[in-house]
């Protein structure tokens, strides 16, 4: 090793000539992963540090459809230092002739237990008492601006008068409640207790937030609470995981972005491999001399590995500095954009993770050319032909395989998303395989087409260069194609979602979802809708909310995991006849009055592992109902119409207070008139405009698409770096080629056309494969994840293909200018 180190040290004195691409590829990939990891770490730290503020207390008891009984409230108060009660629901806010959906938070005098409610103008929460005998309200600025309200203006909420006191600047507990389909309103709980908004069967959530008394722990209180409220429909949460939805979303998005960053490193690996190959090619005579003087393959390999390790460490360090510096420089912007209060700073784990990925990737792609060259004999190395066409020795192949397994294992372990990690690596490997096949196919086609180019010297020269032994097609197509593939997939998914909404919404989806319809209001509401000829269809169903707590007598989450059906409460209905097509089992008779029976959505039943005859326990209004699954139904949730995962026989819910829901199908032009009429006649109902709900989801998807596109742009930048490196490395070969062609009578224009043709063909190959991979990925995501129809979007596809051709053309032609300007005599006299 001392000899290897001495050789390496002397070689390193030559500087970084030829290693700029190596360093840039490694630096960009590591920087992207480090930046994503630091932001994710900041969000995690913010969630942990601000847990009590985000939750609104140390712990929270949730009840659906009801408030705690006096005995339950006494027990909660006895085990807490402070208690605050909140009720959340949706309702319609009316100001003049304008109506808007709002997410209402009704609070008591103890709110907020933790954190500070910031208002404009600054007021204490006690200002909810209002003025002039009219209760007060705090409104989200978006809601106030939409309705033209300012402090002192009056409006109605659910038919009850309120006065606006202030605009909400910041709620301390606004994170983690899921997607809110309307801006926030805060009112006093006392102001709505006697009104229709909390009538039996109305949809609302009650939360009791507490702070711990001295000497109590969350574990102890949780154990006692679960035992006390077993079977009562209570859901527990505490400050240790105050915003699980935000945490889950952040982790999965960050994981996906890290995997996109790894794709960028894979692209950089192509550049690393090409750089190391070119470097070893230049050092072939040095290696041959060392071999002739008795140096072993191990000594030579160690000397070169030491050099690569030093350069790799420099590239990784530069990447860590770039990633950390970019995050710190943008810390203010990042903090403002985050869903939780965060302090962006340096953290060891994400930097270590990025460095580990960078080191493993550099080692994998550098060992291939190094192992291949170190196995050659000295005589072969002294010759300029016959190098680099054989596989590395078995030992090197085993080591490379072990490093690939270590990279995949590290990504799966550190991300915690094994399935996503394996799918991403399989996708990257598949894309690289397709791109490699395309490059090899292009070389073969070019060789076969050479005879057809007789009489066309520019085309003949381009085909000969593409099909020749020193062709640049493989690194160009691999590096550029993978980055374009990721961008193509993002473009197809985004266009597919927008197209599905534009195509399907007017024909399939309802205009409004109406909830909180009291049973005695259903017939008058339907009669009122008959006065609107534009209304083409109205569907109704009774609805309650329930939590599936057990499957076959065991806790549901122990049986089926963290499935979305088990995550919180779900809509439950009852019906004498089926609404959807049965896929298995039989429906109960219309007058059935025996033990409870259930019909479950077929797709969700498969995901939960449920089958006919299984027993499920659902808690509704604090009452456990155990029902046997007797049928499965084909429920299509993609239409945005009425659909329930769980339907029970009517007798199972006899006497339970409920409300009805309705979907109204009407053209967009008549939506406003229908809403105004219904809101005036039934002020307690809540109308959710389906277009607005889909717009909120689309907005969230757009944010994800932009984040992924940003990460993909780093991959593309890495690919362009490799492309420039390949073009720069081939500058000498192009100079010799241009000199020979000039000597044989070729003009500069013909030579330039030849260079442009080979670049265009390589770029077209990368672009076409990227379009195919993007289309396949877009179809898979839309079909399997979004459950939406897919149609190929030609716009993004054409842009990707043209982008690939343009990128290779620019890089190739820029590095063709100097070879074209060189004098043939000077070039041909040079020693090869």
From TrEMBL:
The keyword Cell cycle does not apply. It holds the Pfam family FtsX. It is found in: Cell membrane. Keywords: Cell membrane, Membrane, Transmembrane, Transmembrane helix. The chain crosses the membrane at residues 21-43, 256-281, 302-331, 351-370, 391-414, 420-442, 759-785, 797-817. This is FtsX-like permease family protein. It is a multi-pass membrane protein. Residues 260-374, 715-819 form the ABC3 transporter permease C-terminal domain. The keyword Transmembrane applies. GO terms for cellular component: plasma membrane. It comes from the Bacteria. Its main location: membrane.
């Amino acid at each position: 090793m001392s000899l290897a180190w001495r050789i390496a040290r002397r070689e390193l004195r030559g500087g970084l000539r030829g290693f700029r691409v190596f360093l840039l590829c490694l630096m960009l990939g590591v920087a992207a992963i480090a930046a994503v990891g630091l932001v994710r770490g900041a969000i995690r730290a913010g969630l942990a540090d601000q847990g009590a503020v985000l939750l609104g207390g140390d712990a929270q008891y949730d009840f659906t459809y009801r408030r705690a009984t006096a005995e339950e409230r006494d027990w909660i108060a006895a085990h807490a230092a402070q208690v605050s009660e909140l009720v959340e629901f949706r309702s319609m806010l009316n100001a003049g002739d304008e109506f808007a959906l709002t997410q209402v938070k009704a609070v008591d005098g103890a709110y907020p237990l933790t954190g500070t409610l910031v208002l404009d103008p600054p007021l204490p929460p006690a200002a909810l008492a209002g003025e002039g005998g009219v209760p007060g309200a705090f409104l989200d600025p978006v809601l106030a601006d939409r309705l033209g309200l300012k402090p002192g203006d009056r409006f109605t909420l659910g038919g009850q008068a309120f006065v606006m006191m202030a605009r909400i600047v910041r709620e301390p507990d606004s994170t983690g409640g899921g997607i809110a389909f309307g801006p926030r309103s805060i009112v006093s709980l006392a102001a709505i207790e006697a009104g229709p908004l909390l009538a039996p069967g109305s949809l609302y959530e009650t939360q009791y937030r507490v702070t711990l008394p001295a000497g109590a722990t969350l574990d102890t209180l949780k154990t006692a609470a679960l035992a006390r409220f077993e079977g009562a429909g209570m859901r527990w949460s505490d400050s240790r995981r105050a915003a699980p939805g935000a945490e889950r979303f952040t982790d999965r998005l960050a994981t996906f972005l890290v995997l996109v960053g790894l794709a960028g490193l894979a692209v950089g690996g192509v550049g690393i491999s090409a750089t190391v190959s070119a470097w070893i090619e230049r050092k072939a005579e040095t290696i041959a001399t060392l071999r002739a003087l008795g140096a072993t393959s191990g000594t030579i390999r160690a000397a070169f590995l030491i050099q690569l390790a030093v350069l790799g460490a420099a590239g990784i360090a530069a990447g860590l500095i770039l990633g950390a510096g970019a995050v710190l420089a943008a810390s203010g912007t990042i903090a403002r954009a985050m869903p939780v209060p965060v302090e962006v700073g340096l953290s060891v784990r994400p930097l270590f993770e990025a460095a580990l990925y960078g080191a493993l990737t550099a080692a994998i792609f550098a060992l291939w050319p190094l192992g291949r060259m170190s196995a050659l004999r000295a005589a072969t190395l002294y010759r300029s032909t016959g190098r680099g066409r054989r596989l590395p020795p078995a030992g090197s192949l085993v080591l490379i395989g072990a490093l690939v397994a270590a990279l995949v294992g590290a990504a799966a372990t550190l991300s915690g998303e094994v399935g996503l990690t394996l799918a991403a690596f399989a996708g990257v490997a598949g894309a690289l395989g397709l791109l490699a096949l395309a490059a090899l196919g292009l070389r073969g086609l070019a060789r076969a087409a050479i005879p057809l180019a007789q009489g066309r010297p520019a085309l003949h020269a381009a085909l000969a260069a593409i099909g020749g032994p020193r062709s640049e097609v493989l690194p160009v197509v691999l590096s550029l194609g993978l980055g374009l593939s990721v961008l193509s997939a993002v473009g197809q998914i985004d266009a597919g979602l927008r197209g599905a909404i534009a195509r399907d919404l007017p024909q399939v989806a309802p205009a409004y979802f109406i909830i909180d319809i009291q049973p005695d209001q259903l017939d008058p509401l339907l009669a009122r809708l008959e006065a609107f000829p534009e209304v083409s269809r109205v569907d109704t169903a009774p609805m309650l909310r329930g939590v599936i707590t057990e499957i076959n007598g065991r806790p549901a989450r122990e049986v089926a995991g963290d499935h979305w059906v088990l995550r919180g409460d779900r809509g439950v209905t009852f019906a004498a006849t089926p609404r959807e097509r049965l896929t298995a089992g039989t429906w109960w008779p219309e007058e059935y009055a025996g033990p409870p029976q259930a019909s479950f959505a077929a797709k969700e039943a498969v995901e939960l592992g449920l089958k006919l005859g299984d027993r499920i326990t659902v808690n509704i209004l604090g009452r456990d109902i155990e029902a046997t699954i007797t049928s499965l139904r084909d429920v299509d949730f993609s239409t945005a119409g009425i659909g329930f995962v769980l339907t029970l026989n009517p007798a199972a819910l006899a006497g339970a207070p409920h409300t009805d829901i309705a979907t109204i199908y009407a053209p967009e032009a008549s939506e406003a008139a229908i809403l105004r009429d219904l809101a005036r006649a039934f002020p307690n109902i809540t109308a959710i405009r389906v277009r607005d709900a889909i717009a909120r989801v689309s907005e969230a998807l757009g944010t994800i698409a932009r984040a992924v596109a940003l990460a993909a742009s780093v991959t593309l930048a890495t690919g362009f770096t490799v492309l420039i490196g390949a073009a720069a490395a081939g500058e000498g070969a192009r100079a010799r080629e241009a000199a020979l062609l000039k000597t044989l009578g070729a003009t500069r224009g013909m030579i330039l056309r030849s260079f442009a043709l080979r670049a265009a063909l390589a770029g077209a190959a990368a672009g076409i494969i990227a379009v195919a991979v993007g289309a396949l990925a877009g179809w898979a995501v839309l079909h399997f994840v979004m459950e939406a129809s897919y149609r190929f979007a030609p716009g993004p596809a054409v842009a990707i293909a043209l982008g690939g051709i343009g990128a290779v053309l620019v890089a190739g032609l820029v590095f063709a200018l100097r070879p074209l300007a060189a004098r043939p005599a000077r070039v041909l006299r040079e020693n090869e």
